[in-house]
Backbone:
């Protein structure tokens, strides 16, 4: 099976690895007083001031071209940066989507005017994006979207509804997948991507309270929202290809391995104390490391394919499916380890962190494509459908 | 270089190391003819320095060769011999012809040596035995041999005079580490065989009017099987990352732990998808799934190596777990 044996372990170039030291020095200071249960929010953590501080150091839009305000660095440099941010549990949620997906999408498909308008603002940490994909009746089956942008003299009129849009209540813009022709029966035909300024009249953003009591995702309603002609990004009717071309970026990155890593490190700190160390916990530490290490190597190997301009969609789906499995194993196994003990000796902060991660862990294998969707993609890659 | 090498071995094994031959050797036929061909090819000396008549390759260069041994359910210890000969060459000991298995040794009451359940011990010509801070090279022909748990293995015992006469390499050589490194790479190959055979079967076997691979439940099982195969192969590559022939202990721990975990899952999935036919002696799947279990056990199961990684993380390291992940995955 060529897809499988073509993944070769790859080295991060020394000039990109060199970025780790300054990033880690900054994070060690910036995060030292933030408790673990807050840091475990990681890329769901929202902190515009932190984003602007990163941007001031050139660490937002690191891979974007210098002429648009980016850092002009390689995908490996971003890998190093992101890996450190996630392992420290830095609150990177404000710019996460814009940095990872929206700005690269605009650069790939947008007009020169769109690039000049949006990308520098992303790099300054001043323009936050969300992705408007799911609708009440179009989740995993995304081709069924009904939100419609209809042409008029002033550009486009937008009507419809998005749901489960992560961070919409904190963002300036949404890149929405909408129908510009045909109907839901036309499936992938007639879909387009538009950029929506979420401050426009007719846009209503309603946060949805989740089971943790917080709000990370939202409903977004469009009621005759007037968009300018240049709201369209790329070509009308090509929305599906544009959306799928970005999925390998979304699915293979370090954020698919490290969602529970702050909890793991917090637990490790306890297991390293004489009171915390048991033979079972030592073995569990090794079991998690043995799962994560090959995943990291695979994730870097995919980064090298992306850097060469390939689109390793099947490999990315594989890494995400395995990676989120380990991310979910961590809280389940740590809970078993800690609650077989007399918990009066276990630090409260560790138990709080465990509780938070246990609650959010189901989302790891929902966001960015469910397990079943990913396994279906792998099966297609194997020639089974 | 390694591409040419692996093409050479792949061709040789395709032609010579057939399922029929594997079956015959497993049922007691001599492995001498197969070994003679391998010796002729020069592969057993791949890791021996050029000055000593070998190919002078690094461990990372031979990963695909070790993997191929797994792909073909190799019934002789070629990988073990490659590493054993590197140990002997580096100790300045003359290398005998013939294959070499690896094993920890236990002294007997009469001053002899006993090795229990030696992987490949029934088909090997020699055993490199670890005893405290030295390694002894003992001839299988002079051992008292009893059957072990697995058909290709054996429990071997040598008397005091054979032990006294054995060539010995001073210094500590972690033979379990070498065994684990080889077994992990072979597991990667065997997993690939199991996966491709199962995929092919799902495409061919028709039930309810269509190939069973068209059913979503089977597709998802095959996806999971491919994930284990894919992750295990990367882990086994990591185990062979070394500038010279000596494997790195923590990298091998990742390799052996992950491939062993995958072996259990993959064998179960492959048999579930194959149904009853996969359980027959006649059908080739069993040659590979039995190897998955054998190599999972050789050199230590997953928990053995989880403990190695865990002790490093808990007792030796400070700071982020990430740093251990980097130390084991960044190329040396």
Residues:
């Amino acid at each position: 099976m060529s897809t499988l044996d073509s993944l070769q372990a790859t080295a991060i170039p020394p000039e990109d690895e060199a970025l780790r030291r300054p990033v880690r020095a900054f994070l060690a200071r910036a995060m030292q007083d933030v408790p673990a249960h807050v840091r475990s929010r990681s890329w769901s953590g929202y902190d515009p001031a932190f984003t602007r501080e990163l941007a001031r150091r050139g660490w937002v839009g690191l891979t974007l071209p210098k002429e648009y305000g980016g850092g002009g660095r390689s995908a490996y440099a971003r890998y190093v940066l992101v890996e450190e941010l996630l392992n420290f549990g830095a609150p990177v949620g404000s710019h996460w989507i814009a940095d990872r997906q929206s700005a690269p999408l605009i650069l790939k498909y947008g007009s020169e005017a769109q690039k000049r308008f949006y990308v520098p603002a992303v790099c300054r940490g001043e323009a936050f994006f969300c992705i408007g994909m799911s609708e009440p009746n179009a989740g995993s089956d995304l081709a069924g979207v009904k939100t419609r942008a209809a042409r008029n003299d002033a550009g486009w009129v937008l009507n419809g509804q998005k749901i489960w849009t992560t961070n919409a209540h904190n963002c300036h813009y949404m890149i929405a997948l909408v129908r510009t022709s045909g109907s839901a029966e036309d499936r992938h035909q007639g879909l387009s991507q538009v950029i929506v300024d979420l401050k426009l009249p007719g846009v209503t953003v309603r946060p949805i309270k989740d089971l943790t009591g917080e709000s990370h995702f939202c409903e977004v309603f469009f009621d005759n929202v007037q968009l300018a002609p240049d709201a369209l990004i790329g070509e009308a009717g090509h929305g599906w290809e544009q959306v799928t071309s970005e999925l390998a970026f979304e699915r293979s990155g370090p954020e698919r391995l490290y969602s529970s890593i702050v909890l793991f490190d917090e637990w490790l700190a306890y297991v390293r104390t004489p009171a915390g160390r048991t033979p079972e916990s030592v073995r569990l530490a090794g079991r998690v490391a043995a799962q994560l290490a090959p995943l990291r190597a695979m994730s870097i190997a995919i980064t090298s394919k992306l850097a060469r301009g390939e689109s390793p969609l099947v490999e990315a789906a594989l890494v995400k499916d395995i990676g989120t499995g380990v991310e979910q194993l961590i809280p389940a196994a740590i809970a078993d380890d800690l609650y077989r003990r007399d918990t009066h000796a276990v630090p409260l902060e560790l138990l709080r962190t465990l509780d938070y991660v246990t609650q959010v862990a189901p989302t790891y294998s929902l966001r960015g494509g469910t397990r079943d969707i990913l396994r279906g993609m792998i099966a297609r890659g194997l020639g089974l459908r | 270089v390694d591409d040419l090498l692996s093409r050479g071995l792949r061709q040789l094994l395709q032609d010579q190391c057939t399922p029929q031959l594997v079956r015959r050797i497993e049922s007691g036929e001599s492995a001498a003819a197969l070994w003679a061909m391998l010796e002729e090819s020069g592969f057993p000396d791949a890791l021996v320095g050029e000055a000593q008549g070998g190919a002078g390759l690094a461990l990372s260069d031979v990963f695909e060769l070790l993997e191929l041994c797994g792909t073909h359910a190799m019934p002789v210890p070629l990988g073990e011999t490659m590493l054993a000969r590197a140990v002997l060459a580096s100790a300045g000991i003359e290398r005998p012809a013939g294959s070499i298995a690896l094993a920890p040794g236990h002294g007997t009451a009469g001053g002899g040596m006993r090795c229990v359940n030696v992987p490949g011990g029934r088909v090997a010509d020699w055993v490199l035995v670890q005893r405290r801070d030295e390694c002894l090279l003992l001839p299988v022909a002079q051992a008292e041999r009893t059957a072990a748990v697995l058909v290709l293995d054996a429990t071997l015992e040598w008397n005091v005079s054979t032990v006294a006469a054995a060539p010995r390499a001073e210094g500590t050589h972690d033979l379990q580490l070498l065994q684990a490194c080889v077994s992990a790479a072979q597991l990667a190959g065997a997993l690939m065989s199991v996966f491709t055979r199962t995929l092919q079967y799902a495409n061919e076997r028709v039930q309810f009017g269509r190939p069973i691979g068209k059913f979503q439940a089977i597709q998802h099982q095959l996806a999971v099987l491919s994930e284990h195969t894919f992750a295990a192969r990367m882990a086994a590559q990591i185990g062979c990352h070394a500038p010279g022939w000596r494997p790195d202990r923590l990298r091998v721990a990742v390799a052996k732990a992950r491939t062993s975990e995958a072996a259990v899952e993959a064998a179960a999935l492959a048999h579930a998808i194959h149904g009853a036919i996969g359980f027959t002696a006649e059908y080739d799947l069993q040659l590979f799934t039995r190897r998955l279990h054998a190599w999972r056990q050789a050199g230590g199961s997953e928990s053995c190596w989880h403990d190695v990684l865990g002790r490093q993380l808990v007792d030796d390291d400070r700071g982020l777990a990430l740093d251990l992940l980097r130390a084991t995955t960044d190329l040396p």
Notes: Chain A has a mean pLDDT of 94. The CA atoms of residues 152 and 313 of chain A lie 37 Å apart.
